[in-house]
Amino acid sequence: MIPAVVMPQTVTLPLAYGWTVTVWEELTHGQYNDMRSRIYSESDTGTLQRNVERFFDGLVIAYLVDWTLTDAQGQRIEIRGLRPEALQDAYRNLRQFAALEVQRAIEAHHERASAAIADLKKTASSGAPSATISPYAGSPA
Predict the structure, then answer these.
(1) pLDDT, tens digit, for every residue of 48-57?
(2) Which of 9, 65, 113, 135 would be 22's cystine partner, CB 3.0–4.6 Å?
(3) Helices (H), the chain
(4) How far is it, in rounded angstroms, from Cα 129 to Cα 124?
(5) Is residue 52 within 8 Å of residue 95, measured between CB atoms?
(6) How far apart are CA 118 and CA 111, in angstroms?
């Protein structure tokens, strides 16, 4: 049986230059929805539109927990426990090559995690396949 709840576990990923980035092993439904709500906003007409400033960094900010990146004085840039807006600011202040290093590692981790979940769903056996959800009694079909 597949657990329905994500246990809050982290994974440390190696980066170039001896850096590391610590990320959530898997996003919860809430973390995923929070990511989507940060990258989309409602227009005056009620339609959803992408916040281009946040769209490309959304996955990074959702997964990011900590890193070992340093500032110009060699001091570690502390990010653990920061709110998403503050994480976004710290991430946006990185040099381009450093930001891309973090982004590529997190995107690769996300792809591996998604593939592992897909494999788990294929191999999990819960007996009979789920029936199609039927409408509530008394509701129009």
Answers:
(1) 888 777 778 9
(2) 65
(3) 29-39, 52-55, 58-63, 84-92, 96-123
(4) 11
(5) no
(6) 11
State both tokens at 37.
């709500």
Alpha carbon separation from 90 to 42, 78, 86 (Å, rounded)? 26, 9, 6
The residue among 82, 94, 93, 85 whose CA lies nearest residue 37 is 85
| Residue 52 CA from chain centroid, whole number | 17
- Per-residue pLDDT at 35 exceeds 80: yes
Tokens 């996003």 sit on residue: 27
Measure the CA–CA gap between 130 and 39, rounded to whole angstroms: 33
CB 39 within 8 A of CB 55: yes
For the chain, the structural domain boundaries read 10-119
Are the C-beta atoms of residues 87 and 79 closer than 8 Å to each other?
yes
Has residue 126 got a pLDDT over 70? no
Q: What is the pLDDT of residues 70-121, one digit of tens each?
A: 999 999 999 999 999 999 999 999 999 999 999 999 999 999 988 888 888 8
